[in-house]
Specification:
Six copies of one chain form a homohexamer.
Chain A lengths: L23 E12 L2 H12 L4 H19 L8 E11 L2 E12 L4 H19 L7 E14 L2
Antiparallel strand pairs in A: 1-3, 1-4, 2-3
Helix pairs in contact in A: 2-3
């Protein structure tokens, strides 16, 4: 059976030592969705149609959150992200946030990708909360992550 | 049909002016769940049984996130939270984070309660990611919010 | 002759005590401009025409900066901003950032309005720096500030 | 004609991927000036004469701002600055802030040098705002930037 | 026997609800000392004599830390500080940092005063660490705290 | 006689340029103690016995502080910490916080280890301040630091 990497034998939390790992190109993609009422979706579509700010504000918030991940999550390492991308798109029943984060480092960037998705969706929630009383955020998950050796 | 409070007629984003509202006691409760594999749940249960740190770390991260909400979400106001509570509990298929935030102010604290839940669950994700490759975060939503006049 | 409010008789820096002032509605408006080459302006105009993100990203950065002012400027007080607005507009030789910040408090919000303008213009600089090697930021100044008694 | 590095073909903002670049020694120097009234300059000169804190506080704020640049400017990368220097000097009509920032990294430090200058000048503004009602910040620009291969 | 205000009956940590308290003028004073070798003290005295930056940098860091206290200490409330003062003075065997913080609020500012003293002394440590291998920080404590009704 | 690394010949503060140093594995250990009354110790022991949160909250705060060091201390460099560990243990007259921080970098991590200890102890202070009016923090000091070549 597996073992928590952040938890020692006495059950105490711990920051994992990544100092012995070789720096690699790390990439992670995550996603999540906010479920919206039809009326809200219509408003967002109208805003998207006239290229308003709703999705852009959420995307910027997501990128900023990726950079703040180690401040948000206590046992996360500080990283130097080389790329963060957040794309929000309207779907049938809500808005999906797809994120991708890359770094060159000794530990992966999945928490950065997941934080970016979470905060982008919370930002959409914030902008829609005056018109939609039934929003919920669903399906925040990792899509994939890779590590590639440096040339 | 409703109208976005943060978006003007040209579709541009905007911080709402709350300066004319009367300060009231604002309270909001939110929740969310991270779905975990049986093996992961067993590890968390063992950790909880010996009163290890897993749930506590997530709760602390959630409280800290409530205080950082205006930094995370671009159009949120800065607030002086008078109380933030995050409780994580193991359920059949995962861990639920229940949050409650209070302030005395001119705008509500639902984004604070939702941010607290999101970050608490991301923190559990972080601690379990070495043992569980199928986690996802579901059902982040507001439970209720109230405003009460100051005496 | 005047006297620095933040500097004592020995020349030492000091945070002013605002505790004895009565809370009032404080408002300040500031502005600033980034001078751009014709080619850069054309690119921004094209982006603005198709309602791209350039000006929006700068506006969001400016709003966020208004909220961070007390962290940026050592002797500034923490404030609860009730409204922050940043509008970027293309002019003949560059982009102007106009800002407005409001709070209810014991000290003014001019530094918040000025920080918002500065960071909005720096953000435009960042986005244009691959195409324009002669940018400069000019004329960051206060337009006006007011204080009004609470009703 | 050039192309914005941060903006894609649809006009959407984007963090540039710097992961394929080779780390180099990056250095940038920037400058800016705050225009002050004669009386204000006299007060600053007196403070400087008795080696008071005015210029030092601004310099410290500038150094701190260099380290916060990626938090202020949405599409900036996080960097590990190896050196940040901010020097404020009184000139005929105001105070000039000269900055220099170095890092070893995959992207330049010009935004860090420019942010340091901007925040140093805003800090002087803050300290002088009780005595000078006509301040403005001018000429924030890059002086030069270099990249040198690592030995 | 007393009871921890932040800890519930099950031993779990908790942010205290201060929402029912009446806002009062809160003030706290704290102190602490860093013990230095004779040679280091001599260098600081020389720097102080020519009104160099050592003590000023520490004082500014302390003021900034007072404003960051709720971000540093998980169960602290966010506050609007109306005044923060940090004075460092050379004594026989080291440097003493005396701090004073005021706010109008529902909870005291002793943690802010203590954080300011701690960070001011850490900043002196940082500046002296190349010359002194035996520094230690001692006696960080509250001197007094008061609450006064608003008029 | 030694010389301050952060202070130039005119007594001005300066961030040291670490760009020419070769990255090495840096490790530092620090410690500090908070002196508590017998009654407080008893409450902490009871909390520790039932594995309550008191010591865990302090440890998490310390780890977070290690990551924030360059934001707290003006002339500290930003670093990528590979490991941060904070252990709090009850002793005869108080609680000791032992910390260890590692990074791969061009400058040491002693300030990070000392900041972690300081903030962990301040966090204990915060949680005990309702029951103990005589706390003081003592003996914050470096235990050792090492640098090792990368393989």
């Amino acid at each position: 059976m597996g073992k928590f990497s952040h938890i020692d034998n006495e059950g105490k939390a711990n920051m994992v030592d990544v100092g012995d790992k070789i720096p690699q190109i790390r990439e992670a993609r995550a996603t999540g969705k906010i479920i919206l009422e039809e009326q809200t979706l219509q408003l967002i579509n109208e805003n998207a149609l006239k290229k308003g700010d709703v999705l852009t504000v959420a995307e910027i918030a997501g990128i900023q959150a990726a950079k703040k991940t180690s401040d948000l999550i206590p046992l996360c390492h500080t990283l130097q992200i080389t790329k963060a991308e957040v794309k929000c798109r309207v779907v049938e029943d809500g808005v999906v946030a797809d994120t991708m984060v890359k770094c060159i480092g000794q530990t992966g960037v999945e928490m950065e990708a997941l934080s970016a998705a979470s905060v982008a969706l919370l930002t959409i929630y914030d902008m829609c909360k005056a018109v939609d009383k039934n929003m919920r955020i669903e399906g925040i998950k990792l899509l994939d992550k890779t590590k590639t050796d440096l040339k």
